[in-house]
Amino acid sequence: TLDALEGEGQFALESVDSDALKASGLTLDGQVTLAGENIRFALKGDVEELAADRLDLARGEGVTLDVAGSLEGETLNLSRAQIASPLITAEADGEVLLGEQTLALRYQVQVPNLEPVAAAYDTAAAGALESAGELGGSFAVPKLKAATNLKEFAFDGQSVGDARLQHDFTLAEVITGALKLTAETRQYGPVRASADVRLAGSEFTAENLQAEALGIRATGAEPVVANLETGLASGRLTWQADDLATIAKLAGTPLAGRAE
Length: 260
Description:
It is a single chain. The protein is mainly β. It contains two helices and 16 strands. The protein has helices spanning 115-120, 245-251; strands at residues 5-17, 21-35, 38-52, 55-56, 63-72, 75-84, 89-97, 102-111, 125-138, 142-155, 158-170, 175-185, 189-200, 203-213, 216-227, 233-241. The protein has a 16-stranded antiparallel sheet that branches. The protein is elongated and about 80 Å long. The N and C termini lie far apart (82 Å).
């Protein structure tokens, strides 16, 4: 008997065309090893043109793919899954238990320039984005815990600064979790905010809201509820400003003192 069978080959796909994904000129070189019930695989390839939704990921330079791992019984071990394009680079690794329908994956995403990404959605933004986190739990109700950093962020031609958003979500039919924002802005100074959030359809709810910016501290006295379709919101905040000087400077108004 043979302890292991090895094979390699090349796969080519002329084009894929759907509403969500368009690709052409895909070539993959693969190696597969079969040892008993275990399978090891490694795939590397290039895509000449790749578009996801409105994003042209290749931008005339192509996209590279690199995937490797093993299947041992009902356990899929992903040692690496990487995609690199002029717009974005992303990688992931981890474990998927197919029988138990659970997963434990780590990921990293880097967007060196947000400008072409934002432009694809008719928005003017610039800067760099980095995000890293973990996706785990059951297939039906996975949990996402991650942190996203914005560097030299600018919006609508206005320089904003650097920001870090920490997010911890449960991705069920109703999404729940917590958000924490820390930012160092050029115009407004330091910004801090945190809240427990809930998204049910188009209704967004923030509870335990705490925010501090422009010398103002705000606290949610009750849940703040916003309809994302209509833009209408309701709730009650209590706020306090120990020094109105920062607001006065931005408004060009000679204000002084404190308020609450």
